[in-house]
Design goal:
This protein is mainly α. The chain is built from four helices and two strands; from the N terminus they run H-H-H-H-E-E. Helix 1 packs across helix 2 and helix 3 packs antiparallel against helix 4. It holds the Pfam family SSF.
Length: 146
């Protein structure tokens, strides 16, 4: 019985962290990107609907990544890779380059994501469309970028 309660407590903690991450990502998207960039005069009802849709989209993408990746290390590597490749350059631009605006940040996000996805991902078994310098094929003929 003790192990059952312990497993329940760990599951509750993990689910709490997961749903708060998805909720915060969708609210940041709805307020900071949708309202500030696309619809400055959006009503609260419209923002709530955007949040509901993005909760579903972010939850579905997180579930797909979790189901497609075979190891926890793969998920950690993929999430840290996305943060350092897509979000960190935006932070540097905002802090150190004058004239950085929202539209440039959105273009940078999309361009960085496009370059990262077309580079392939061995943990999600995505073959690269762009072969960056230093790529090689492993024994299963999956191309890996360095």
């Amino acid at each position: 019985y003790i192990s059952l309660f312990g497993l329940g407590a760990v599951s509750a903690a993990v689910m709490s962290s997961a749903d708060s991450s998805i909720l915060s990502a969708s609210s940041m998207f709805a307020r900071n990107i949708y309202q500030l960039s696309f619809r400055q005069n959006a009503t609260d009802r419209e923002i709530i609907w955007v949040m509901r849709i993005t909760i579903f989209v972010f939850g579905a993408s997180a579930t797909a990544m979790a189901l497609l990746t075979k190891s926890v290390y793969g998920l950690w590597y993929l999430s840290s890779d996305l943060v350092y490749i897509i979000i960190f350059p935006q932070l540097l631009c905002v802090l150190f380059i004058k004239g950085t605006n929202t539209y440039g940040a959105i273009a940078g996000y999309l361009f960085g994501l496009l370059l990262r996805i077309t580079g392939g991902e061995p943990y999600l078994y995505l073959q690269p469309l762009i072969f960056y310098p230093g790529y090689y094929a492993d024994k299963n003929h999956i191309y890996i970028q360095r």
